[in-house]
Amino acid sequence: MEPLEKTPTEPVDYALLNATYGALLATVAFAASRRAPEAAPIAPGELLPLGAATFSLSKTIVHEKVEAWVRRPFVEEHASGDRRPRGRRLRYAVGELLTCTRCMGTWSALGLTALRLTRPAAGRAVIAVLAASAMNDFLQSGFAWCRAGANAAERATAAPPARPAGANGSSQRPQAGQADGPTRA
Predict the structure, then answer these.
(1) How far is C-alpha 115 from the chain's CA centre?
(2) pLDDT exceeds 60 at position 101
(3) Among candidate residues 158, 16, 5, 180, the one with its CA nearest the CA of residue 97
(4) DSSP character string of 49-76
(5) What whole-number distance in Å separates Cα of residue 18 and Cα of residue 103?
(6) 90-97 vs 101-118: helix axis angle to the nearest 10?
(7) What is the pTM of this model?
(8) Residue among 129, 79, 95 at smallest CA distance from 13
């Protein structure tokens, strides 16, 4: 990410994004404090699925083709896979947000937590789907890594062994008692 001085933005653009996030966070905290005591709190065991769901949602928004329509007003996407924020000022700052999975992850976590707190059943369902999607991503990456290793090993064993050339071009090793190279008298 470029330093502020090298972007077509002003500090107030980022302040507006921070204020928006802070206001949404305060709203979620206030709503959570006003819930009925019997309302289902977020249990410690839900944090791992919530984290996986956050990963999945932010990755989908930032990288997947299906969400290109969300990014298009704010991000230039090239066939090479290069992405850069469009425009200037707030538009550019939002474009930076939409090209950063960690940045989008904080907003995704806020949205998923708000959903879970305000509509527990719907929140659990959405989190379960996104967490399963994240697990699928990890499994697919692991499978691709294993497959690449197996393919490399297969290529290595299928290739003819390299023959070291001796002094006479022979690939045979000298027998016991034979000289390894020219002998000196």
Answers:
(1) 23
(2) yes
(3) 16
(4) HHHHHHHHHHHHHHH-GGGHHHHTTTEE
(5) 12
(6) 80
(7) 0.76
(8) 95
Long-range Cβ contact pairs of 60-63 (< 8 A, separation 24 or more): 60/133, 61/98, 61/104, 61/108, 62/98, 62/99, 62/100, 62/101, 62/104, 63/101
Asked if the model's pLDDT at residue 163 lies above 80, the reply is no
Amino acid letter, residue 61: I
> What pLDDT shows up at residue 172?
55
Which residues touch 95 (CB under 8 Å, ≥6 apart)? 71, 74, 75, 84, 85, 86, 87
CA neighbor of 61 nearest in space, from 18, 114, 101: 101
pLDDT digits (tens, 9 = 90+) for 68-81: 999 999 999 998 88
What six digits make up the tokens of 20?
Answer: 């928006």
User: What DSSP string runs through 75-105?
Assistant: EEE-TTS-EEE-SSTHHHHHHHHTT-HHHHH
With tokens 């305060």, the residue in question is 26
Quickly count: other Cβ atoms within 10 Å of residue 167's Cβ. 10
